Amino acid sequence: DNLNCINDLLEEWKKVANIRFILFDFFTPIQEVKEEMWLNFQERDLVLNKLIKLKKEKYGDFIGGPPSTFKRMMHQNKHKSVGKNCVFVKYGTAFDSCGNIKKPCVIGEKADCSRCGCIVPFSIRAWKEPSNLMREMWEAIASHTK
Questions:
Q1: How far apart, in Å, are the Cα atoms of 99 and each of 48, 96, 104, 106?
Q2: Would you list the domain boundaries of the chain?
Q3: Alpha helices, DSSP H only, in 55-117?
Q4: Does pLDDT of 132 surpass 70?
Q5: Is pLDDT at 66 greater than 90 in this prediction?
Q6: pTM, full prediction
Q7: Which of the four pLDDT bands, split at 50, 70 and 90, describes residue 63?
Q8: Which of 39, 59, 103, 104 could form a disulfide with 89 if both were Cys (CB 3.0 to 4.6 A apart)?
Q9: Which ranges of 5-60 would DSSP assign to H, the alpha helix?
């Protein structure tokens, strides 16, 4: 039910001195568990379009992640970053609170990858785009010359 308070959340946290950015992701369902928290893809795409607009027009980098992250999370594109294409599943390792490895990812073994809402696989793919790598290098150089 927090769909309608995105602007309020951003305004409130933007005033906090030590907060540099906020990341947004979505609930990922667990297989075989009926869950009402999951947004259908149409609802999710509406939220993503809103975040894209807010990032571009008002909040910039305060809404964290590369600009193309949200486009990758759209229903029509998500298959490129999740399931068999998930970079986290291929190369990452997640641990539970006792230090045991969680498979296939941070969500756990029964994650419904077809409805993945975790920002990690989409963000990693977005950062691998050449334009984002150049931006990251430029920002690193600029921060060291100050």
A1: 33, 5, 15, 12
A2: 2-144
A3: 69-73, 87-91
A4: no
A5: no
A6: 0.79
A7: very high
A8: 104
A9: 6-14, 41-54
- Cα 70 to Cα 27, 32, 53, 103, distances in angstroms: 15, 27, 10, 25
Q: What is the mean pLDDT of the chain?
A: 86
> Per DSSP, what are the bridge partners of residue 101?
95
Angle at the Cα of 11 (from 119 to 18), degrees rounded to 5? 75
- The b/e string for 118-131 (b: 16+ C-beta within 10 A; e otherwise) is bbbbbbbbbbeeee
pLDDT per residue over 2-19, tens digit each? Answer: 778 999 999 999 999 999
CA 89 to chain centre: 15
Amino acid identity, position 140 = A
